[in-house]
Amino acid sequence: MRARLGELAARLGGELIGDPAVEVARVGTLEAANAETITFLANPRYQAQLATSAAGCVIVGPAMRDAAAARGAAIVCADPYLAFAKLTQWWAAQTRVLPRPGVHAQAVVEEGARIAASASIGALAFVGADAVIGEGAVIGAQAHVGAGATVGAQTWLKPRSMLGEGCSIGARGIVHGGAVIGADGFGFAPAQNPQGAYWEKIEQLGAVRIGDDVEIGANTCIDRGALEDTVLEDGVKLDNLVQIGHNVRIGRHTAFAGCVGVAGSARIGAHCTAGGGAIILGHLEIVDHVHITAATVISRSIMKPGQYSGMFPFDDNASWERNAATLRQLYQMRERLRALEKKT
């Protein structure tokens, strides 16, 4: 595929510096670019690469305008990273081969399922009884849509993903391979019999409800609720290998990086983020606009927006609690020590 710079600048709403008739044929990085590459520079840390890049065109912000113009063609946008994101979406739409509408001969569709004429059901996919597949939705090869589940318009379940019975996902979603939506939550009651202690299963009677424009990464698991539903609101983004426990609620446009774990019944607000490997314990509340750094363990509710971090050495619980309590007083203890030193 080839695209003219004039067309791309118009689509991105940016100012073009250079010949609008010049064409590019690929999107790439500053470092690996050639004369047919369009790339971007958002982080000033990489400005040194700008002068030496062979890119045919670079998307930059206003602060980099002069440096980019001295090098060659550029598209100046208020937010170059956002412009780059929109460019990749447009480029993919022009180049990606979409599955044809219809049900593959080797798919299994149970009685009562309603599939829009524009939807695509891939080879060896399964659509359960009374499931609803919306307009333009794609159910990839070997994907599973359980009985009574609902897939919204233009949503794509990639190969080998699963949407369990009674669960729903809204419009324009993406569920990557290996993701499991609607497995049983981790619920067991301790019990005793003559042979000793054991665990009695608590049947998980809820479902999972997912809003519009949600993306779920590969091998991520979202458990169904025990009684009420697990809920992900519009615009939530989950990376690969994320675990969402039963009855969790995640507010709109919250994003979690890989290996984040959220225990059951946590309530997480809108526009939050969590870095890779962060853990949120169960039954906690986190308000809107909270940002948790990588590998942080959140062990109490957060009622004030902001950024939170924390790691602590593993120890037996009693020692850990004493040390943690002391650590939280460390700043005040330091200030008291300084005051005493000044007196002496």
Describe this structure in words.
The protein has 344 residues and is of the alpha/beta class. It folds into four domains: 3-95, MurE/MurF, N-terminal domain (Udp-n-acetylmuramoylalanyl-d-glutamate--2,6- Diaminopimelate Ligase, Chain: A, domain 1), CATH 3.40.1390.10; 100-178, UDP N-Acetylglucosamine Acyltransferase, domain 1; 179-311, 3 Solenoid (UDP N-Acetylglucosamine Acyltransferase, domain 1), CATH 2.160.10.10; 315-344. The strands form six sheets. An eleven-stranded parallel sheet has the order 8-11-14-17-20-25-28-31-34-37-39, with no helix packed on it. The protein has a ten-stranded parallel sheet with strand order 9-12-15-18-21-26-29-32-35-38, with no helix packed on it.
